[in-house]
Structures are given as structure tokens and as C-alpha cells.
Amino acid sequence: MRDLQHIKSIQAFEAAARHLSFPAAAKELFVTPAAVGQQVRLLESVLGFKLFQRQQHGSHRLSLTPEAERALPEIQLGFRALAAGMAQLRAAAQSTHLTISASQVVTSKWLLPILEAFADRYPDIDIRLEVTDKLVDLAVGQADVAIRCGGGNWPGLTAEHLFDESMIVVCAPSLSVDIKEPADLLQFTLLHDSNAYSGPVFPDWEAWFGAQGLKLDPNHKGFKINAPLALIDATIMGQGIALVRHQLVKADLAAGRLHRVCSDIQHPVSWGYYLVWSSAADNRPSTKLFRSWLLETVRAK
Questions:
Q1: What DSSP element (H or E) covers 271?
Q2: How far apart, in whole angstroms, are the C-alpha atoms of residue 275 and residue 280?
Q3: Which stretches make up the HTH lysR-type domain (predicted)?
């Protein structure tokens, strides 16, 4: 095993021997040709003989010495064995790790409250949350699965429908006593979700009032918040009336932190929530367990 202290030199030699070129080997290894040459000379110094013969003419300026030519197949066999071993280690890691991607508001208001049950059922799975409002690239392994809202069509990915969504009007309990009908909302400060989300467009207050046959004055008192989680928090604190996604405030409604007003008005949207994954993650044990558990949990509610 002592020879493995020179693994970088052996790797440089193998690449240069395969290409018969220091520049080509350097390109493969993401180093400079001079660095490849330095590693090869180091290995030659350790061994006490030359590995390459330098030619003055011909398509390849390098050729292997007889000693190097005899040893090369065994060295290449060793690198293939190392690659196979690393593949097994990665497979083992993937079977016990699970990276889930979701937006901040979906993570905080929906995923985290139920995720503890999954962790309790499968304590050997190392759960990692990638909390971001950007769409991570599942095809290159930035996450194993993602929870997204949209129409269910993401090219190259498999999507399993979780549930639909609708927009509802909510406020702090202290404000709800003065609201009997939609027109009463015009007396209050309106909170606007201005989040520049890369998925579906959420209905705004103008569309909501228009559906009720009312017109919202463009100068009506209100303010915009570009983070849905902060919008919900501001509503809980009584700073105004909000038009929010129903699925994300169910816990706040149940706990009495928010109160739904104009509850007879449904404002459905044309998209829903989906569990999404790539073909690369399709057969990983941890991914399959999470998919099965999540669908079971959603359908049980």
C-alpha cells in the first residue's frame, strides 16, 4: 500500500500512457502539461528508470519503455477496481441519504410538520433539506426529490400529483369581526404577495375582487411582501388582510393564529403540488421509501 502515496504520479503516468501525450493527459486531469510532466518525473525518480521515450518525429512524441508497457495493464486494472469500489460506496451513500428540495414557505408551513413522522419511521435515512425558491437541477443530483407547484410538466422528470390548491382570504382573529362580505375588505390594509416565483402565477387582489364584481382602487392602502412566509407572518401579527394559498395556512387556521374570512368564496387555481424526481433517483431505496410514505401521508389526510 505504500506505493499509493504516489497515487497522483501513477494517475498522471496512466493518463499520459493512454494518450501518449502530456497535454492530452493534462486536459483530462484538469492540470497543466507541466504538472503532468512533473508527476511522471517524480514516479521515474522513485522507480529508478524511465517510463517514456521521447521521440523527435512521428504523430506521437512519446512512447512507452518496455518496463512501462508491461506494467500499464495492471495499473489500469487497478484504477478500474478503484472506480468500481467508489461506485459501490456512492450507491451505499445514496441508499441512506435523502436530499429533498422545496421552497422556504412549503418547507416551513407544510413539509417540516409532517417530516418528523418519516424520520421516526426510517431513522437510518440521513435527511437533508435543500430550502430554496429556485428550481434545483434534479437531473445532475442537486437533490433526490423536490416538491413543486405547477402544472405537473417538468421535462425529463417524473411528477406525482400530491394535492390541488386554492386561494383564500385570511386575517388575524382580531380583525375578522368587522368583515361580513367582500366589500368590507376594502376598509383594511391589503397585503400583496410580490414573490418573483419561477413557477405558476398566483392570483392577486385585483383578480380576486374582479371575480366578486368589485374594483380595487390602484391607490388602495397596502404593501407588497416578496416572501410568502413573511406575508403569512405579517398577517398573523394583524398588519393586514392577505390572499394566501390554503394548503400553506391550514396549521395556522387550526391553531387559531389566522381566521378565514369570506369563507364561502372559493378561488381555485389551475395548478397543484407535485413530488418530482429524475430517472437517476428512481430506484434509490431512500427515494422510493420517501415517495411511498409521502403519497400515503397525503392520501390519508
A1: strand 267-278
A2: 15
A3: 7-65
